[in-house]
Amino acid sequence: MVRGDETMPPCSSCSRKPTPAAPAAGASIMRSAAMIAVVIVLSKLAGFARDIVMAQKYGATTVSDAYFYAYQIPSLALILLGGVGGPFHSAVVAVFAKLIPDFDTKPPELVNKLYSTFLTGTVLFFTVLGILFFVFSHQIMGLIISGGSDELVSLAARHLRVMTPIFIIGGIAGIFYGLLVTYKHFILPNFSPAILSFVIIATLLFTKHDSTGIVLACATCAGALCQILVLYPSVRKIGFRFKPNFNFFNNPENRNICGGVELNGRAAARVCGYVFCIGNP
To answer: Is 168 in contact with 120 (CB distance < 8 Å)?
Structure first.
C-alpha cells in the first residue's frame, strides 16, 4: 500500500526522454544542400566545357558573333523565364504549394486543371511571340547589332529564326521546374541546364564543317528541347496530366499565377535593364 505522503518512484521507461529528431533532420538537409551544390557546379563546368568547344570550333569569327548576338533573346527565355528562380518557377511554387494538400499523393483534379490551363496559355503566348520574332528577325537583329555589317545582321537573323522555338521551351521548362521544386525534387531542375551543354558539345564534336553556324543554332534548340523531355517523365510521375484547357479567365488561381509571373518578370526586367545600361554607358 501507498501512504498519502508517499509518492511512487518514477519508472525507468516513463522517465526516458525521447531522442531528438532535429540532428537527423539537420543532417538530411545538409546532405541535400551538398548534393544540390555539387549538381550546380557540374552544370557550370559543363557550360564551361561547351564554351571551350565552341571557341575551338568557330573562334572569333563572324559566325560566332552572329550566334552570340542571336542567342541573347532566346537565352533570356531559357535562363531568365525558364530557369530555377525565374518568374514562371517562382509563381508556380507560390500558388501550387498552397493548393496541394498532401505532397505524398497525386495532385487533385483542381490542381491538374490549373496546370493544364497555365501550360496551355504559356504555349499559346510564346508561340505567338516566337512567330513575331521569326517574321521580324532581321529587323530585331538590326536593332541589336547597331552598326554591324549586313552579312553579320543577316546571319544572326538566320540563327534567331532557328532558335525561336526556345521561347516556348523556356516557358514550359519554368513550369516544370516549379512543379518539381514544389514536390521537393531539387536535383533534376538544377542539373537539367547541363543537358543543353552536353547536346551542343556532342553535336560539335561530330560535325566537321559548319561554315554558317546553323548547326550550332540547331544544336542549341535541340538541347533546350532535351531539357523538357528529361523533366517531363518526373512531372508525369508526380501525377500531373496535361489536357489542353482554354478556360483562362474564370479560374482565379490562374490569374494569381499570371500575376506572380508579371511581378517577378518586372523585377527581372529591371535587373536586365540595369545590366544593359551598365554595359552600354
So the answer is: no
